[in-house]
């Protein structure tokens, strides 16, 4: 049994990322911010995937977080980044606690469809309600850090914030996955009855996992809203959820670092495709997803694992 | 009173439209246990195919009635080609996988087909109003109703009846029922399950394309029309119970009436009332209205 170095690795990756932030051009920082926003959502999907459910409606909590930021800014003039982040996480958590009352009872296709229905309810409300910005969405004021306005290096400041939030979130998720309820995620997928026999309530466990995933999705929505400076109902549409599922498959669920690698990859593919072959980008996306399902069922992360195993095999011989 | 009439008629027209689309979806799910996201692409291919062919046809000056034949036959052609290709290339190697993985496979197929659509037909809008205009309108009291919409209601109803007859009274229907209940047992009795799957999937694809084709004369055919319809059809199928034709019919009527009532009485809740109905039904009956309780298989 090797010692678990995940947290150390996460920290060094975060340090490296922050250092890189000072040399990379602004558009790359922006791209990274969007990717981290998505990765935070996917971090929650990773947990749910281990439980054997795939929500096509995680955009509900993502949009919930984004709109919490937007509405607090619009109606209360709040711009403090820490306050807004906490509220967005809370909103994601509360929304998923409510949806979870129903969702926690479902598995498989029904879970997927019901979660999609919930996100479409929010989409319908957002599109039709003037007070929530309707189809145009809401423009955001730039956020402040404890009263300080990072006007000159806004993108960089957002980037450092996003990296740190990503570090904390992925470390927290890692710790959770190592805990007893976290380790029971895969047994839920494998055999629920046995988990019940262990003395755990599968339904409560699922509800807890849904709430955790909702909190991360709320955080992701907040990071995205900070960086883009604008929110619209598209955030809650089912295709947004589809994108999150896409990243989950592409990245694999082997490690808490995988969502970040996957999301970055996704954004790079998307940006390049939009820039050079805009009319083919969905073909590329669909093709990549198919290729990953057919040839790499464990996602990109399984490449790392395979490499590692080969190394340790070589070392033994 | 007038509003009530309008709600009922609008509701039924909407229900008929969504039923045609949902029928294919529920058929594929019932038999193959695949939630086919690519159904949305079948729908838009059907709409584009019918719209462009009707456009060409109406330039020839032949009688407009031919437009209706085009709607039917173009949908059958498109469904045959797309359904067969998709089943053969993407789905057959994946049958032993988890249902959720199959959703993702059809989702990626959907993404790709949306772009293929754009490559073939471009991003402009297509119009095929000729059959819609040709059949005229009828006045009932103060309301003016399009005959095309009435035809659509009749068409959807006969499609449902035909589906029901096929399932309960034909040889193929009996085989299908056997496969739905127990795939392995059906195989051991000599049913060629792969063949049944191919036929089912192609039939479902034709129905999806048909849904698009009958819609083409009523709307402007634009990219992205499949994205909206797919979630709607999911809602209908989930309400009725996945794999049940009667369920799809009841689900379609419920969704149609709920939406029409919202449009006429509270327009601002139009979009979300459908999914609220779905969530409500599923909260009360988790498997939908018309699904048999299944014994747990360990």
Description:
The complex is a heterodimer of chains A (about 325) and B (about 300). Chain A has a domain at about 25-235. In chain A, helix 3 crosses helix 4 (about 80-105) and helix 4 runs antiparallel to helix 10 (about 200-230). Chain A has helices at about 5-20, 25-50, 60-75, 80-105, 110-130, 155-180, 180-185, 185-190, 190-195, 200-230, 240-250, 260-275, 280-295, 300-315, and strands spanning about 140, 230. Chain A has 14 helices and 2 strands. Chain A has a two-stranded antiparallel sheet with strand order 1-2. With about 325 residues, chain A is mainly alpha-helical. With about 300 residues, chain B is an all-alpha fold. Chain B has one domain: ABC transporter involved in vitamin B12 uptake, BtuC. In chain B, about 75% of the residues lie in helices and about 5% in strands. Chain B has a two-stranded antiparallel sheet with strand order 1-2. In chain B, a hairpin with a 2-residue loop joins strand 1 and strand 2 (about 145). In chain B, helix 1 (about 1-30) runs antiparallel to helix 11 and helix 11 (about 245-265) crosses helix 12. The mean pLDDT of chain B is about 85. Classes of the chains: A mainly alpha (about 325), B mainly alpha (about 300).
Number of helices of chain A: 14
Distance between the termini of chain A: 18 Å
Relative helix content of chain B: over 70%
Strand composition percent of chain B: under 5%
Biggest sheet descriptor of chain B: 2 strands, antiparallel
| Main sheet attributes: strand count, strand direction, barrel closure of chain A | 2 strands, antiparallel
What is the element string of chain A, with H for helices and E for strands?
HHHHHEHHHHHEHHHH
DSSP strand count of chain B: 2
Instruction: Give the strand content of chain A.
Output: under 5%
* CATH topology name of chain B: ABC transporter involved in vitamin B12 uptake, BtuC
Tell me the name of the CATH class of chain B.
Mainly Alpha
Low-confidence stretches of chain A: none
pLDDT averaged residue by residue of chain A: 86
SS-derived structural category of chain B: mainly alpha
- Strand and helix order of chain B: HHHHHEEHHHHHHH
Cα radius of gyration of chain A in angstroms: 19 Å
pLDDT < 50 stretches of chain B: none
Q: Identify the biggest protein-protein contact and residues per side.
A: A-B, 43 and 45 residues
Query: Distance between the terminal alpha carbons of chain B, to the nearest Å?
Result: 55 Å
């Amino acid at each position: 049994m090797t010692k678990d170095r995940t947290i150390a690795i996460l920290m060094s990756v975060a340090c490296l990322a922050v250092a890189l932030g000072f040399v990379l051009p602004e558009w790359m920082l922006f791209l990274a911010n969007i990717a981290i926003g998505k990765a935070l959502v996917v971090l929650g999907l990773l947990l749910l995937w281990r439980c054997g459910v795939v929500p096509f409606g995680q955009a509900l909590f993502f949009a919930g977080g984004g709109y919490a930021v937007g509405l607090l800014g619009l109606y209360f003039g709040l711009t403090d980044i820490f306050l807004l982040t906490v509220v967005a996480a809370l909103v994601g958590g509360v929304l998923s606690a409510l949806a979870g009352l129903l969702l926690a009872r479902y598995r498989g296709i029904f879970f997927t469809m019901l979660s999609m229905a919930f996100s479409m309810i929010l989409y319908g409300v957002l599109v039709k309600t003037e007070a929530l910005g309707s189809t145009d969405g809401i423009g955001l004021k730039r956020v402040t850090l404890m009263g300080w306005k990072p006007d000159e290096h806004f993108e960089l400041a957002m980037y450092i914030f996003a990296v740190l939030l990503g570090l904390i979130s992925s470390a927290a998720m890692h710790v959770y996955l190592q805990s007893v309820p976290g380790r029971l995620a895969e047994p839920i997928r494998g055999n629920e009855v046995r988990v019940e026999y262990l003395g755990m309530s599968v339904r409560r466990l699922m509800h807890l996992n849904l709430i955790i995933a909702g909190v991360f999705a709320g955080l992701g929505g907040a990071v995205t809203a900070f960086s883009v400076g604008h929110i619209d109902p598209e955030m809650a549409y089912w295709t947004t959820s589809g994108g999150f599922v896409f990243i989950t498959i592409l990245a694999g669920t082997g490690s808490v670092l995988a969502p970040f690698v996957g999301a970055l990859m996704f954004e790079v593919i998307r940006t390049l495709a939009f820039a050079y072959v805009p009319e083919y980008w969905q073909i590329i996306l669909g093709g990549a997803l198919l290729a990953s399902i057919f040839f790499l069922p464990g996602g990109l992360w399984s490449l790392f694992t395979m490499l590692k195993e080969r190394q340790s095999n070589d070392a033994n011989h | 009173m007038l509003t009530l009439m309008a709600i009922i008629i609008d509701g039924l027209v909407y229900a008929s439209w969504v039923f045609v689309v949902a029928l294919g979806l529920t058929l594929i799910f019932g038999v193959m246990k695949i939630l086919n996201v690519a159904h949305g692409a079948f729908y838009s291919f059907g709409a584009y195919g019918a719209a462009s062919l009707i456009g060409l046809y109406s330039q020839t000056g032949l009688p407009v009635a031919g437009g209706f034949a085009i709607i039917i036959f173009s949908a059958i052609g498109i469904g045959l080609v797309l359904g067969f290709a998709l089943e053969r290339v993407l789905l057959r190697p994946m049958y032993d996988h988890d249902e959720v993985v199959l959703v993702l496979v059809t989702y990626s197929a959907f993404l790709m087909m949306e772009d293929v659509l754009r490559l073939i037909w471009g991003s402009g809008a297509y119009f095929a109003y000729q059959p819609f205009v040709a059949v005229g309108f009828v006045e009932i009291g103060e309301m003016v109703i399009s005959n095309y919409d009435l035809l659509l209601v009749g068409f959807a109803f006969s499609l449902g009846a035909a589906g029901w007859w096929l399932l309960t009274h034909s040889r193929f229907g009996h085989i299908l029922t056997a496969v739905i209940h127990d795939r392995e047992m059906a195989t051991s009795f000599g049913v060629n399950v792969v063949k049944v799957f191919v036929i089912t999937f192609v039939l479902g694809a034709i129905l999806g394309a048909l849904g698009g084709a009958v819609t083409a004369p009523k709307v402007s055919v634009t990219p992205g029309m499949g994205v909206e319809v797919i979630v709607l059809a999911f809602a209908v199928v989930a309400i009725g119970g996945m794999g049940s034709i009667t369920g799809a019919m009841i689900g379609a009527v419920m969704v149609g009436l709920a939406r029409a009532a919202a449009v006429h009485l509270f327009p601002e809740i139009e979009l979300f009332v459908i999914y609220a109905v779905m969530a409500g039904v599923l909260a009360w009956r988790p498997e939908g209205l018309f699904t048999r309780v299944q014994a747990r298989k360990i």
